[in-house]
Structure formats: structure tokens, C-alpha cells
Amino acid sequence: xxxxxxxxxxxxxxxxxxxxxxxxxxxxxxxxxxxxxxxxxxxxxxxxxxxxxxxxxxxxxxxxxxxxxxxxxxxxxxxxxxxxxxxxxxxxxxxxxxxxxxxxxxxxxxxxxxxxxxxxxxxxxxxxxxxxxxxxxxxxxxxxxxxxxxxxxxxxxxxxxxxxxxxxxxxxxxxxxxxxxxxxxxxxxxxxxxxx
Length: 196
Prior knowledge:
Number of helices: 1
Shape: globular
Distance between the termini: 32 Å
Low-confidence stretches: 114-143
Helix content: under 10%
Order of helices and strands: HEEEEEEEEEEE
């Protein structure tokens, strides 16, 4: 089985992208301000009016010498700078579109969030602990943590190919605050020098 580095090199070579570049950890993030109640969110589509703290991209494509493998998807909702449960804990699905291909289709995110959501790995096992004297802490619940989904397959975002993340629901309540989607994983960025 190919490693994420080998897969990224393979995709880059098929697209004619240069193989030289600095290997790094990448995090791409995008914010939607005041979405209210809606049945659909589209991240990495609109960058109009977003500041540097709300996104780290200016378009929904990576530069010509950059690429990335998505390993983790992070979804968070804030209201008055306070972390909330994403979408009010209603059933939601996530899809990722790269180019004209839907590479993740209707992945249910409720298994990673809410009162019944389970931590996806040991790193987050105690993260959702509550301080409730009547009930006691629940170490595996991600009640008010950001919803974090670890992908079991490598999703590649090649250079100069448009991508987006869609969240669909039956009228989820995202309030008047902000919702954030972040994609993290292994990547390659342009490096002008040969040594550091």
C-alpha cells in the first residue's frame, strides 16, 4: 500500500506538477460568518471579505507547485466566541469535491459529535469530559468539542484543481456566529531554495 508521500508524488507526476518542493504539514481553513439555519453549507467557495484569521486561502485552488493529502477534517461552530456543538447536533452529512469528482460522499458526521459522539482515537478520548456534578464526566463524548473526522483513505488535492467541502442537513441551526472547516494533513509547498 502506498504511503501518503508516495500517493501525493504519484498524483503530482500524473498532472505534470514539479516534484521538487518542501514537504510540510498543511492546514487549510475557511469560515462562514452568520449562516443561521440552513440545509447546506459550502466551504472553500467564497473568500470575499474574509480576513487572514478567517481563511488562509484566496481561491479554492492550491498554487501550481503546491498539493496536499487530507487526513483530518475539523468542523467548529462559534457564537460570541464561545464554542458550540456543530449544527445543533442534528444529522448532517459531509461531502468533498475535488475538481469535478465527489471523493467523499454524504459521510455522516453525527458519529463524531454530540452527546453520543465518540472520540475517534485515543488522543481525543478525554477531550469531551463534562463537569456535571449530577452526572459526572463522560470521557468519550465530544459534546462541545469541535467535530473532528479522521479519514481512513488519502484524499489528494492536486495543484491548480478547485475543491470544496459541503455540509448537508435538514435545517441545522448554525446561529449568528461563525462556522469553520479546516482540512489538515501532509502537503508540499513551493521552496525556492535547495537547502535551509
